[in-house]
Design a protein that fits this description.
The protein has one domain: Rossmann fold. Helices cover 32% and strands 22% of the residues. The chain is built from twelve helices and eleven strands.
Length: 380
Amino acid sequence: MHAKAIFASVTLTVLLGGCSLDDSGPVRSVFRPADGQPFLSAVVYLTDRLPDPSAAGGFGNKWADAPSCGIADTVLPPAGEKTNWGYLAKTHPTACRSENGSLGGAVKLIEAQAKTKGCRSVLVYVHGFHTGFDGAVLRTAQIAHDAQTACAAAAFAWTSEVKLNRYAVDLERSTYAQPLFEEFLRELSESGLRVTVLGHSMGARVTLATLSAIGKSRERARPGFIDELVLAAPDIGAGRDDDDFVKLLRAAAPYVRRTTVYASSNDSVLALSRSAHGGVSRAGENPAADYASDAAHEIDLIDASQPPADALDHSYYAMSYEALYDMALTLRSVTLADRLKSNGVWPPTLVKNDSRHALATARCPRLITRIMIRLAPLLP
């Protein structure tokens, strides 16, 4: 191994020794209510994981090639709790199939949750690499709460192995999940619900690839059935000669009213992914790109490089309050122009630097993040 690569590997090991890199690890709200009490919520889940009674939430990290559906009761502590983290209190499995379709049972749970809350919408979360079932569900609950979506929330928990050295396996498993997610989106499109989808990292790839497949199918979904599509740190090739991201955006365009991409030049995970993909840039690490001129629908690109989040700054979309403030308005279809100014209800969540829209913040990335973004390209 080259001396620089050895140095980078050792340094990263030391720096990350005390950090949790697993998105299924510690999850809690980034806000703290006046009473300091934990937040309780129910999340509808759809997974292709094999049931495992010994695993958190009842599902392990093996692929089942069959769907499981139900509701998970979650407990999320507020910000400021140094030792308390979110957990799944209980899961309530239900049949996925109903008279309305192979996943009609899951859609029925979403509709019932929405009806109870007096609304007609759902936020669907698709997680990325290295995420367990419990982490996917807890992150769904946290985002729905912190972004104040106030209606139904659903987690699509595909089978990640939750091992840092199994990126290629996760990539393979994510492709296995696409037919199931395609059927889920089709049935949601027929429900009449307002659908918003958030895909993170490899989950953004799952989401766009699935929408592309729908467009190539004989039975296409209802046009424009996704009101807001949010792609956070998308782990998809977007190099000068590898425009996979733009092609997938074009393919998804008939089914999406607006797409918002959050990207950060300080995302160490995507820097590692770039190396693993032969130096091809990832869409989520270039906040200066111009995708709007290449796609057939509205695309907003947000620079999320500044707010500090986790050690690798890959989960800023859920761990920085600046991103969540802005995402709350994004999911409500508030325009870029209105997010640049205060309206008396919310402060500006964006600033404009030249032609670029960036998250409004006075904070800077942490030193550990700035070190790792420079070490990541040195790894073999």
